[in-house]
Amino acid sequence: MKHMFKKSLLGALVLSLGLTGCGTSTKSGTSGKDSQTKAAIVTADDVKTETTLTFWHALTGPHQDQLNKMVSGFNDKWKGKFKVEASNQGTYTDLSTKLATALTAKQLPTMTLGYEDWMYSHHEKDAVVALDDYITNAKVGMKDYEDIFQAFRDTTKLDGKTYAVPFNKSTEVLYVNDDLLAKAGVTAPKTDDELISASKAIKEKTGKPGYGADSLANYFITKTYQQNAPYHTGDKVNLTNDVSKKIAQTYQDGVKGGYFRIAGEDKFLSGPFNSGAVAMYQGSSAGAAFIKPNGFKFSVYPVPGGAGIQQGTNLSVFKTATPEQIAGAWEFIKYMTSVDPQVDFAMVTGYLPIRQSAAKSAKYVEFAKKNTVAQLFVDGKLKFFSDPVYKASTIGRSEIEAMMQKINSDTSASVDEALKKAQSAIEFAQKR
């Protein structure tokens, strides 16, 4: 693979986030896409007139409201120097599509929120600013950069350089209907075997499915990492090995037996969970705000089987920006990832703070006492892994989701054939 996100621990960056410590640019040839130097950096002190920065994102509702408050805070701080204009571009799919179009037309925003796999394609086209010289700059650097959890930092590197800074992060957790589990005489599962046996008992005692995964792609990908058989190594994808087959077959068997379910027409499992139609579901830790149980008690646990997948977006800057805009974008990144804005954003949205100091702050620790997901995070009980990007990884994820949807919407579908089809589609995309 030509460009690969930095990874450790045999490809799956598995970390417990316990709180115990812890310019202008010119294009070069194929030997290195960035030739930025410390001498070339324009800083905020060099900017003499108010400079407007365009910022694209896909946050909505309360998440967007809080983001706008943060943007206003930055604009107030830098009034007369920098002004950020934040613009929602629709869904994340819409944002990705618009960025691709803007990249072709060379009409990109100053900066964007985006996922790691998007950064791969932007980097391939020499479009994103390497931030290392800004991070380490004696005058405007981020001296507390390593305060950002390493699990988050390591996903923003390509070819040994840093092309983004983490902003909003989450993992997956297991939401549990305490009442239904009590009726079935089972406890929250910690292993895959316990998940299956508990789900069967719940189905037998209550008539309701025991478990469902909000994202079938996440379920499949997570299980491959938990079982030390990641579905890809570098660019090489392997969906047809015995581990992959067993993972897919296990879920299909559960749907056939009625003790697992998929979201289906409900789109998300928070609705069925809230109504008591499913006893447990695996979903985003940032989705806790959508849990509004109808007359039952619920709890939140780490996902069964091991580490959960790390998710979320990062802040990156495009080379089409002027040196003055890049200087402002760097100040914006520092502001948005500083402790107080991160704590406030986490408390409103349910995302996890990206900084150790934010997670240990008195304000967040107090908040965690009334928020189960935050308490799990503060207590160091949430472990996650990073799935490094690879060539055509966006398509790869879509194909895995489609494969899992196919075999569980039609339980007569062949798991082997569905896996082979997904593998072929990914390999075809990689040859383009």
From TrEMBL:
Give the matching InterPro entries: Bact_solute-bd_prot1, SBP
Major subcellular location class: other
Q: Name one Pfam family in it.
A: SBP_bac_8
Write down any Gene Ontology CC term: cell envelope
Q: Does the keyword Transport apply?
A: yes
Superkingdom of this protein's organism = Bacteria
UniProt keywords (A-Z) are: Signal, Transport
Location(s) in or outside the cell: Cell envelope
Gene3D superfamilies recorded = Periplasmic binding protein-like II
Respond yes or no to whether keyword Signal is given for this record. Answer: yes
What the record says about family reads: Belongs to the bacterial solute-binding protein 1 family.
In Swiss-Prot or TrEMBL terms, this protein is called: ABC transporter substrate-binding protein
Upper lineage is: Bacteria, Bacillati, Bacillota, Bacilli, Bacillales
